[in-house]
Design goal:
The protein is built from twelve helices and 15 strands. The chain is an alpha/beta fold. The strands form three sheets. Strands 1, 2, 3, 4, 5, 6, 7, 8, 9 and 12 form a ten-stranded mixed beta sheet that branches. A three-stranded antiparallel beta sheet has the order 13-14-15, with no helix packed on it. A two-stranded antiparallel sheet has the order 10-11. Helix 6 crosses helix 7.
Length: 402
C-alpha cells in the first residue's frame, strides 16, 4: 500500500537518465508494442524519485523489456491535468520522455501507472468520467502508450464517486485505444481484497468494464511469506468468479499478483523464496499478471536502510526482477564466460564438502552444490533447476561423483 513511494523524493532523475537521446516519442503507430505478457510482467519503477537505477543497466543485466512507470497524479495544487508525482506536468515533461526513449531504443517499452498510495488522484479532481478519461488520454498520447495501470489505493479507494470516474475512464480509454493493455491494481487482504475492493469489482461489472486483469497487493496486511500470498490470490479467484460472473479459467486469466520485494512498510519480509512460491502458483494456474514494487528497491541495502531504495533482505542486484523476465516467458541472460582462476574439478570430484542443493535458493556463476552424491557447479544465475536433470537451460555442470 504505502510502498515507501516517496522515501527519496528529490533525488535527481539525472542519476539514471544517462546519454541524451531524442525526446520525440512519436505517434502511437510509431512504436511497436511488445506482447501482452511483457506488459503483464512489467515491474514498477519510479523514474524521477527513490534513487532510480539506470533502466538500461537493469534491462541488460536481466533481459527485462518492460517497466511500469509510476505515478501519474493530479497536481498538488489541484486541477485536472496529469502530472508525475503531483509536481511535474506531463504536458511539459522531457525527463520521463527521455527515459522512455532510451528504454525503447534498447528494445523495450513501458506502461504507466496512475494513482498509487497517497497524493491526489485525477479521479478525485476531474469531476466526471469524460474529464478523467481526457486527462489520461493526454498521457497515452504524449508517450504513445500501449499499456496503462490503474493503481487504485487510499485515499481514493474509499471514494465511490472517484472510483467510478477511474473505472469509467479506463473503459473509455480501452474503447478509444484499440489493443491497449489495461490493468487494475488494488489492496489485498487474506480474503483476497476487502469491502472496497469487492465494491470496485461490482462497479466494473455494472458498467461492463473488463480489464486485462485485476491485481491485488498482498502485503502491508499481516501477510507472512509466499504461502499467505498464495492463499490471498486463491481467495481473489473466488471473488472474481462470484462478483464478475466468470468461470474458473477466465477468473485465473484475469487475475494478477503485485508483490513487494523485501521488507514491507509493515515490516513483513518477502524473500526470493517467497517470490518463487507465488511465481509457481501464478504460472501453474495461468494468472494474467506478475509484478512487484519496485525495481528501485531491487538491490541490497548498502550504507542505508531506506526502504524506498533497497530491499532490506539478502540479495544480488535485480534478483526479484528476474522473476518478471521468467513470467514474460524469457530467460535471464547468461553470465559472460570468464577464464577460470583455478583448475576445474574433473569427474570423480572428490569429497562433497559443498552444501546440499536448495530448490528455493538463488545460485550464481561458480556456486558449488552437492546433490545425489555428485558435485555440481553453476554456469550462471539459476533458481529451482535441479542439478543432474536436463533442465530448461542446462545450468549445472556435473563435476562427478563424490
Amino acid at each position: 500500500m504505502r510502498r515507501s513511494r516517496l522515501a527519496a523524493v528529490g533525488l535527481a532523475a539525472a542519476t539514471f537518465i544517462g546519454t541524451a537521446v531524442s525526446l520525440v516519442i512519436g505517434a502511437p503507430s510509431a512504436t511497436a508494442a511488445l506482447s501482452n505478457n511483457w506488459y503483464a510482467a512489467a515491474p514498477y519503477l519510479m523514474p524521477v524519485s527513490n534513487n532510480p537505477p539506470d533502466p538500461i543497466t537493469v534491462m541488460n543485466a536481466t533481459g527485462l523489456k518492460a517497466f511500469q512507470l509510476a505515478f501519474i497524479l493530479a497536481p498538488n495544487g489541484g486541477g485536472c491535468s496529469p502530472t508525475w508525482d503531483g509536481t511535474n506536468a506531463v504536458s511539459s515533461d522531457t525527463t520521463v520522455a527521455n527515459v522512455i526513449s532510451r528504454v525503447r531504443a534498447n528494445g523495450g517499452d513501458v506502461s504507466v501507472s496512475v494513482g498509487g498510495y497517497g497524493g491526489t488522484k485525477l479521479g478525485q479532481t476531474c469531476g466526471n468520467v469524460a474529464a478523467t478519461a481526457a486527462a489520461y488520454q493526454q498521457v497515452i498520447s504524449k508517450y504513445s502508450l500501449k499499456a496503462i495501470d490503474f493503481d487504485l489505493e487510499e485515499p481514493e479507494y474509499e471514494n465511490t464517486a472517484a472510483i467510478a470516474n477511474e473505472l469509467g475512464a479506463a473503459k473509455t480509454l480501452q474503447a478509444n485505444n484499440p489493443g491497449l493493455f489495461v490493468s487494475v491494481t488494488m489492496p489485498g487482504t487474506a480474503a483476497g481484497t476487502g469491502w472496497f475492493g469487492t465494491q470496485l469489482l461490482d462497479q466494473a461489472k455494472s458498467i461492463g468494464f473488463t480489464p486485462n486483469n485485476f491485481s491485488i497487493m498482498p502485503f502491508d496486511g499481516g501477510f507472512n511469506g509466499g504461502s499467505s500470498q498464495v492463499s490471498a490470490l486463491e481467495a481473489l479467484h473466488g471473488l472474481l468468479m462470484s462478483h464478475m460472473g466468470w468461470d474458473s479459467a477466465t477468473a485465473y486469466s484475469h487475475e494478477g499478483f503485485s508483490g513487494m520485494n523485501g521488507k514491507s512498510d509493515a515490516s513483513e519480509m518477502f524473500y526470493t523464496a517467497d517470490f518463487q512460491t507465488v511465481y509457481d502458483y501464478a504460472t501453474s494456474h495461468g494468472l494474467g499478471r506478475f509484478t512487484f514494487w519496485s525495481v528501485n528497491r531491487d538491490r541490497a541495502c548498502v550504507g542505508t536502510t531506506d526502504n524506498g531504495v533497497c530491499s532490506n533482505v539478502p540479495q544480488n542486484d535485480w534478483d526479484f526482477t528476474k522473476f518478471s523476465v521468467r513470467f514474460a516467458g524469457a530467460t535471464p541472460p547468461q553470465t559472460t564466460p570468464t577464464q577460470p582462476t583455478t583448475t576445474p574439478t574433473t569427474p570423480g570430484g572428490g569429497s562433497c564438502t559443498a552444501a546440499e542443493w536448495d530448490r528455493t535458493k538463488v545460485y550464481v556463476k561458480d556456486d558449488v552444490v552437492k546433490h545425489n552424491s555428485h558435485k555440481f557447479t553453476a554456469k550462471w544465475w539459476t533458481q529451482g533447476e535441479e542439478p543432474g536433470t536436463t533442465g530448461e537451460w542446462g545450468v549445472w555442470v556435473d563435476n562427478g561423483a563424490c
